[in-house]
Amino acid sequence: MIKFLTSILFLVSLALFYSVYISPEFFPYVGLMTLTIPLLLVINGLFFILLVFSKRKLAILPLIAIIAGWNFIGITFQFPKKTSTEVEGLSVLSYNVALFSFSRNNGDSKENNKNIIKWLQENPSDIKCFQEFYQDPTTPSRNSIKLLGTEMNYDYTYEIIEGKSKSRSYGMAILSRFPIINKGRVFDTKRNNGVIFADIKVDKDTIRIYNAHLESMSIQSESLNNIDGIKENYRSTLRKLKKGQITRASQLDILEEHMKNSPYVNILVGDFNDVPYSYTYFSLRKSMNNAFEKAGRGFGFTYNKVLFFLRIDNIFYDNPLKVLQFKTHKEVDYSDHYPVSAVFSWEKPLKKINEALEKID
Questions:
Q1: How many CB atoms lie within 10 A of CB 250?
Q2: What tens digit of pLDDT does each residue of 78-111 get?
Q3: Longest dimension (CA), the chain
Q4: CB 31 within 8 A of CB 245
Q5: Spatial distance between the Cα atoms of 254 and 349, rounded to a whole number of angstroms
Q6: How does 256-272 read in b/e, with b if 16+ C-beta sit within 10 Å?
Q7: Which are the contacts of 246, defined by CB distance < 8 A and separation ≥ 6?
Q8: Within 13 Å and on the Cβ side, how many CA atoms surround 204?
Q9: Could you tell me which CATH number the domain at 90-354 has?
Q10: Which UniProt keywords apply (predicted)?
């Protein structure tokens, strides 16, 4: 019996470890199954210890599985690294602000709005990227562009997804202490999601910042507030999870093509609505570095609801950028997401690697 269970565990583990390279467009439910990867690693570890103490050669199978899935350990958890609390470099913040009015305890949304604006005004990041950004130029306390941008001497780009510029609207924004010399929209869904970019002149260099908010699960907040709500809506939830996986895969194709044609070194931030054990994450990881993996600590969970164990907000970046510090700001409890930030440095003028190689040839 133990041989059968070990063999099944081994085959299932390998299948799921390598399924992150399969697009959900071809295998829609693959993204749901990969959520079990951390559990599989733990089970393989227990089987390995059990079989070693039993002096069974069969222990080689869970050992191979653990080696095959080793990358997922670093993606899941990072041991604290010795870094200075104050580092100098280009600082970038990403935050899904949930329209500035989310209140987990159903408190006063106006007070919550006031607190989040104050925290963001005091945050020293050079570049600030927002998803679900709310703007109301007719109401001083909700004129977010003025409060966070012009009054704080930040250049900005704001792309509206729904609403009108002269009245209430929401969309995505990038604010920068440095001049924005070019900006644009990669795509949007005309509902809530999209990707925008800004080319930012930093001294003698130019960096392209992508701010992404990929397809949401479209699951009502009420169904995630407690376990009973999740159980009651599990069929509907599975359908939405499946749809979200497929849509994000198609959005990722558009984004990757746009980044490929970028003339500058890229930093990609945002709310990806996908966990690290996903096609989205591993596709980006093939060509970019992840700031949490290089400079994070702990589990880095970024979701601020009952499913607290999710890390769906990320900062990716190109070489030759180096990340000096990465933070998940869990003390900032104003939204259904926690903000994430990173500090970057580079030694030589930033150039696309392929352009540099062409000049050498």
A1: 13
A2: 988 776 667 899 999 999 999 997 444 444 566 7
A3: 74
A4: yes
A5: 28
A6: bebbeeeebbbbbbbbb
A7: 24, 25, 28
A8: 6
A9: 3.60.10.10
A10: DNA damage, DNA repair, Endonuclease, Hydrolase, Magnesium, Membrane, Metal-binding, Nuclease, Transmembrane, Transmembrane helix
Q: By the 8 A CB rule, do 24 and 78 touch?
A: no
What distances in angstroms separate CA 196 from CA 184, 193, 214, 333, 341, one per listed residue?
6, 10, 11, 25, 18
Q: Is 310 helix (H, G, I), strand (E, B) or coil?
A: coil
Contact 278, 225 (CB under 8 A): no
Q: What is the DSSP letter of 216?
A: P
Angle at 164 between CA 163 and CA 165, to 5 degrees: 130
Question: Does residue 231 carry a pLDDT above 80?
Answer: no
Domain limits of the chain?
2-76, 90-354
Contact 191, 161 (CB under 8 A): yes
- The number of residues in the chain equals 361
Summarised one tens digit per residue, pLDDT across range 290-323 is 999 999 999 999 999 888 899 999 999 999 999 9
